[in-house]
């Protein structure tokens, strides 16, 4: 038996049609946000890497200069020249973090040096430089002073190592 055609007294119905698949472009707002975050993270990582490389280069240059001073001292044996050059190097590095470092003497200079976390004997050895540079016949323990300067410079080359001047006792 044959199926009978539908009655023609009602509307003609068509099959269900699905809407077209969504396009991949333009992207949804969430993808734009994710892309922006990735670009921001990439920029921050690049900046951090370049800053780290610059700090490493500066530290290497400082320590290379210290080694050149030590080599000149071994060659010449001039304690006064070594003391003056070491003192000048320390002041140049300290000036990066404290503008007044070039004018400080005595206790205020020691306070500036102490903003870098090093042991007290290192500070004592570096303070000897301030007295030795003004003597015509300067004699001091050069190897120990060079080691103290190396220790201080390695710590001072890290910007985060410096304590804030406001944290120092007696700071106004």
Structural features, described:
Helices cover 59% and strands 0% of the residues. It is built from 5 helices and no strands. The chain has a domain at 49-161. It is an all-alpha fold and 172 residues long. Helix 1 runs antiparallel to helix 5 (142-156) and helix 2 (79-95) crosses helix 4.
Topology diagram in text:
Layout: H1 29-76, H2 79-95, H3 106-114, H4 120-132, H5 142-156
Helix pairs in contact: 1-2, 1-5, 2-4, 2-5, 3-4, 4-5
Protein name: DUF4381 family protein
Pfam family, one: DUF4381
InterPro entries: DUF4381
Task: Give short descriptive properties of this protein.
mainly alpha; 172 residues; DUF4381 family protein; rod-shaped; transmembrane helix
